[in-house]
Amino acid sequence: MNRILITGGAGFLGSHLCEALLQTGADVLCVDNFFSGDKDNIRHLLNHPYFELIRHDIIHPLFVEVDEIFHLACPASPIHYQYNSIKTVKTNVIGTINMLGLAKRIKAPILFASSSEVYGSPEVHPQPEIYWGHVNPIGPRSCYDEGKRVAETLMMDYNRQNKVNAKIVRIFNTYGPRMATNDGRVISNFIIQALKGDPLTVYGDGSQTRSFCYVSDLIDGLIAMMKTKEFTGPLNLGNSVEYSILELAQKIIKFTKSKSKIIHKPLPSDDPKRRCPDISLARKVLGWEPKIDLEEGLEKTISYFHTKLKLK
Ligand code: NAD
Ligand code: UDP
User: How far apart are CA 51 and CA 117, in angstroms?
Assistant: First the structure.
């Protein structure tokens, strides 16, 4: 049986990955310190015979025996990763060294969940993997952006120096059920505001763009990347259809049939102006393509938040 470690397994993406890997018949070991994750995300898996949960902070060494490592542990939303920015750097640097040390000792492939944030506020559009980025090293987003960049460096150095089978995936904005209600990311914020009838808070004039990938597509991409032989990446995974934040707000008001208005708030500093992945490499290497468009993905996500908010 394939034994798989998922760090950050109680988070938004991690919990979907745990579920998907259990469905393939794997034995899943979920490790999380519950900083931004939630036991509710994995509660339904706790009685599964091949699911195991360890509460552990990856800035401390971990000694386990597994066949593959998906390394996702790191708060992903600006509110969460800026809450304790020094801890965010430690998680990305010390945590990644610990996971790479583990991968080296047990000779297991390790996939690192990097981010489109390694491109910073990009001057090249859409962003291909060969673009080195335009990143502020000293701003409020740097703990995350530079943390991910050092983690990528470590992945490549362990690969070159210690022959670790390292795989880097750069994830672009991904959304879906189990996004935390308090993490301030744009899709969860707008849906919750629209469902409550509160104004939707568009930062700046809303002309900044993002492209939004539905969670099941992203999970398919992560699993396909792990199956590749000796391919380090980095590899972009995301949806390449780009929307302005204002357009997104209008769509969410329409799909929720909300009477909410749109209000504007100041744009946070270093907020990237445009972001959209070039996914030609993922198409070529993995034969991967997002299948769920924004309308279908929003419908599923709205229905999740509708149920969640009614419970409270
Ligand atoms: P999330 O915050 O929901 O999940 C992260 C998980 O890691 C949480 O369960 C958290 O408790 C755990 N964690 C954080 N620090 C830890 C530590 N020191 N030790 C153990 N566990 C720790 O975020 P997510 O959206 O599921 O993101 C998962 C990964 O994917 C992150 O590495 C993130 O940077 C990356 N990513 C996500 C997106 C996205 O759009 N969702 C985009 C780019 C990159
Ligand atoms: N955003 C917004 N209103 C919100 C939350 C976010 O206008 O209530 C904007 C934010 O400024 C950014 C975009 O939406 O331009 C995406 O923000 P998110 O935090 O989801 O992700 P990231 O900035 O990391 O792409």
Answer: 32
Asked whether 40 and 13 are in contact (CB, 8 A), the reply is: no
CA-CA distance, 143 to 140, in Å (whole number)? 7
Contact (Cβ atoms closer than 8 angstroms) between residue 96 and residue 155 = yes
Cβ pair 215, 279 in contact under 8 A: no
Contacts of 130 (CB under 8 A, 6+ apart): none
- CA 73 distance to own-chain centroid: 9
In 3-state terms, the chain is what percent helix, strand and coil (to 5)?
40, 20, 40
Tokens of 67: 């066949």
How does the average pLDDT of the chain come out, rounded?
Answer: 97
Give the dihedral of Cα atoms 184, 214, 234, 3; nearest 10 deg.
100
Q: Which CATH architecture has domain 3-174+212-237?
A: 3-Layer(aba) Sandwich (3.40)
pLDDT for the residue numbered 312: 53
Selecting among 144, 158, 175, 214, the annotated active-site residue is 144
E strand or H helix at 309: helix 294-311
pLDDT for 311 beyond 60: no
pTM: 0.97
Burial of 63 (0-12, 13-18, 19+ CB in 10 A): exposed
Q: Which residues line ligand 2 (CB under 6 A)?
A: 77-78, 173, 184-186, 189, 201-203, 208, 210, 245, 268, 271
Ligand closest to CA 266: 2
